[in-house]
Amino acid sequence: MNDFFYESFLDEIAQAGAKDPFALRMTLLKDSPRHRTLLQAVADLSGGWKRGPFEAADGTRRARGVSMASPFGSETATIAEVSLKDGEARVHDLWIAIDPGSVVNPAIVKRQVESAAALGLSSTLLEQVVYEGGQRQARNFDTYPILDRERMPRVHVTIVESGAPMGGIGEPGLPGVPPAVVNAVAALTGRRVRSLPLANTRLSDA
Q: Which residues neighbour 12 within 8 Å (Cβ) at sequence distance 6 or greater?
């Protein structure tokens, strides 16, 4: 949740200074080649950074958000592409560049990042525990909302080996997802959402 706070607020700083959020991060990272390389890698993976809003090939109006995170000794950069449907955010693609220092099995790294991205997106869009009168309302998974197949976006992963000490890989794909999605929503709607899940907020185009 801290990365959600940090990276969302950094986008607010960029907006207040009339700066592109990707360009601002690159400027702030001028003395950190490891992070600049990672940020450029995720931009390249996504076909080039563009914030939007823009019209996609299918005619939907979309925007992108970017974020970075430093979980468990690894480094990640994430870009999310989002549209709106019936007042809800729809995530079409997640691009994630990860630098775990060094890698033993790239296939495992990729799968772990993909699954962690699904967990991060589920908590961003849907998951919450509701209490009323001190009682938990959801008693089982049939009443607890989680990400379904229809909402699962394409996840694209690239691995960047910096040669740094080996970091973790079980969860580092997760914390960059919420701020990237919310930053994309802000670009698309002009509205900054500071509370998750997004399902609690009715969204509309700017």
A: 192
The string of pLDDT tens digits covering residues 160-198 is 999 899 999 988 999 999 999 999 999 999 999 999 999
Q: Is the pTM of this model over 0.90?
A: yes
Domain regions of the chain by residue span: 2-200
Number of H helices, E strands in the chain: 5, 7
**Residue matched to tokens 């919310």:** 182
Structurally, at CATH architecture level, domain 2-200 sits in: 2-Layer Sandwich (3.30)
Strand 154-159 to 135-136 pairing: unpaired
Q: How many CA atoms lie within 13 A of 120 on its CB side?
A: 30
* DSSP helix/strand/coil, 69: strand
On whether the CB atoms of residues 75 and 34 are closer than 8 A, the answer is: yes
Ordered strands of the 54-55 beta sheet: 54-55, 61-69, 75-85, 88-99, 154-159
